[in-house]
Amino acid sequence: MNDMTQPHIVKGGIGDSPKRVEDRRFLSGRGHYTDDINRPGQAYAVFRRSDVAHGNIRSIDAGAARAMPGVVAIFTGEDIAKAGIGGVPCGWQIHSKDGSPMVEPPHPVLAQGKVRYVGDAVAMVIAETVDQAKDAAEALVVNIDPLPAVSNMVAATAAGAPLVHDDAKGNVCFDWHIGDKDAVDAAFAKAFKVAKIDVVNNRLVPNPIEPRAAIGDFDQATGEHTLYTTSQNPHVIRLLMGAFVLQIPEHKLRVVAPDVGGGFGAKIFHYIEEAAVTWAAAQVNRPVKWTCERSESFITDAHGRDHITHAELALAEDGAFLGLRVKTMANLGAYLSTFAPSVPTYLSATLLAGVYTTPAIYSEVKAIFTNTVPVDAYRGAGRPETTFLLERLVDVAAKTMGMDRVAIRRRNFIPPDAYPYQTPVALQYDSGNHEATLVRCMELADWNGFEARRAESAKRGKLRGIGMSTYLEACGIAPSAVAGALGARAGLYEVANVKVHPTGSVTLYTGTHSHGQGHETTFAQLVADQLGVPFEQVEIVHGDTSKIPFGMGTYGSRSLAVGGSAIVKAVDKIIAKGKKIAAHLMEASVDDIEFKDGKFTVAGTDKSKAFGEIALTAYVPHNYPHDELEPGLDETAFYDPKNFTFPGGCHICEVEVDPDTGVVSLLNFTAVDDIGRVINPMIVHGQVHGGVAQGIGQALLEHAIYDEAGQLLSGSLMDYTMPRADNLVSIHVGTESTMCTHNPLGAKGVGEVGAIGSPPAVINAVVDALRDYGVTHVDMPATAQKIWSIINAASPRMAAE
Ligand code: MCN
């Protein structure tokens, strides 16, 4: 394959920052989202949802509702069962320590017999208008005998706790482990000191700006089903829904994910509403449209995080990390969402080495069912949880050892010459330089000038703190064979189809999906750079299973590293064919043809053919090597990565705490990330900004809180605090790159690094601000009330002295 890792910036090519192509339509209100699609004769679906967290469905009386104006049909779990419709499947299987497979209870499209969380759908009402459907849904008489609920992991694992699923004893889905327990025990036996921490990774609600929506359409004449949906991965939805839920063969099921207004993970999963509208459309023989409302999305979109972890780090006298022992409880919610089991296990515990040479690591994860919304991947998916734990623990270790926070990190960094580096928890990192990102970030953030700024704040009665995190994450998922061995039920390669048109413009069909990441720009840059055609002449198509050969979609910051590599491979095939055509036209040997800057040249001569001439010849093959080649210039490539990519870096945050109110104000945030080769610096900066904003949201503001009965208390934007402009600062972003060694671009992912690296930097800064109060840990979110209570409960050394 092409070696694309050598820097050569051309206009609209790799390394340039052309404005985002997609923004023309987004900023002028011409985006075309699922809810903008209206099919002729469509009816509207509204779901009646359980308002109790746990209960037996005694009866659903639809008699009166059916007679209401505009009602087309009403379906319940019984109808779904009678139709032989399966439940939505889980895409990842984990085995417990004892080798037994995880408990995998059915997740019916509409609840059958029992409801298990507030939001569980018990009936679907279809009517001529949304309002009529809402009225009829309200008029349904749903009798549920409430059962005691478990709304958090402590309640769910208490002796005699009510069971969410009868076959999940103790509400445990699996009890998994990784690492070498004996080696860790031996490390602790020789420890000079042990640092300990308990952390809660607070539960989050994703809240993409566009709520989910789905339209089912059925063509009786052809027997073809179409689902328009707000998905990050339409082919995956087609596979899961077609094969496991509705038994529709792929050639009769088209899934379209048009413009999607943000996903952040929450739109990866196959949701019951998608299957419900697709099935119902064929039943009522009309298109059926459902659009989620914001309050409904709070209780139906998969939530994120919700881990409780205890960790211990064994330290040598010189501060070397000897061994790490970790125990996590992960909340799965009421049902297994599509990728839920992978999050606390292979996406999380495998990163426990971080950027450090810890030789022995052992981690246990208990995954727990509760009567809450299912929990699954949310921007970072497992890596923010581990990074928060690790980077907090390293700060605690520094305190335990009486060492400087930077010095203890440096003492334990994996040195650049140790790469490729095999961790004790399965992953082999390919490249990185942690000292370089640390130094650059400390310079940009003026780490060394901090104490003077702290003294200045103190004069104003404010507590100033600075914190860092030196993180590493694994993304670009994934080598299919590795993912399969770890429990994934799908391959995780990517697909690109490059169609060169007769006059030399190009359409690229990619199996990834852009919902904010700017692929229409960066992927056009890749093709333009490689083929030497103007950037404006490359069009990107994604999100429609009828147009694109196949694809695994966008998540795990994989689109560039995996999807982009498939593009490089497909363009390489175009160039190889172009060389044969050029050799024929110029009566030269193929081996003598060189391709550069959009020109095929006979080496050592001034004979050349422009790319456009070759394209035209491929489609008007009057003078053509017919014996050897087919006409046309259209190539497809599948790319299965050899490894994950491992972005890393350093994030530094500076805060000021008002001791009178507990309010934490952000003063400065600096991120220096190693993401390998950068395709579009502007888009990369935007991705880091967005991720950091979400990380700050987790650290300071956001928390999905359930009461004991399983009601979501922070269930609206009035109660659940998303970060706003005035909660943020201008974020300084730098990149300091080592190349990925195993993909042709040298690129690592960037989509999640901001959300992974930032939360511990913020909390480390808050803890530092409170250093005179003897505070060693603050759980997220560090709200004013929490900080005020800590300050008022402690007696500051500062005040006493
Ligand atoms: N890029 C680049 N150079 C690199 C790496 C990436 O120029 N070295 C560019 C890519 O070409 C792409 C963008 O940066 O345009 C992000 O690329 P990548 O890291 O491959 O991530 P994905 O495109 O696969 O996006 C997924 C990632 C994830 S997992 C979440 S969650 C997320 C995110 O991206 N959700 C987002 N960013 C988001 N941004 C927006 N606006 N909305 C979301 O829902």
TrEMBL record:
Q: Name one Pfam family in it.
A: MoCoBD_1
Superkingdom? Bacteria
Keyword annotations from UniProtKB, A to Z = Molybdenum, Oxidoreductase
* Enzyme Commission code(s) on record: 1.2.99.2
Q: What class of enzyme is it?
A: oxidoreductase
GO MF terms held by the record: iron ion binding; oxidoreductase activity
- Record-linked Gene3D superfamilies: Aldehyde oxidase/xanthine dehydrogenase, a/b hammerhead, Aldehyde oxidase/xanthine dehydrogenase, molybdopterin binding domain
Q: Which InterPro entries match?
A: Ald_Oxase/Xan_DH_a/b, Ald_Oxase/Xan_DH_a/b_sf, Ald_Oxase/xanthine_DH-like, AldOxase/xan_DH_MoCoBD1, AldOxase/xan_DH_MoCoBD2, AldOxase/xan_DH_Mopterin-bd_sf
Checking SUPFAM superfamilies in the record gives: CO dehydrogenase molybdoprotein N-domain-like, Molybdenum cofactor-binding domain
Q: What is this protein called?
A: Carbon monoxide dehydrogenase large subunit
Source organism of this protein record? Acidiphilium multivorum (strain DSM 11245 / JCM 8867 / NBRC 100883 / AIU 301)
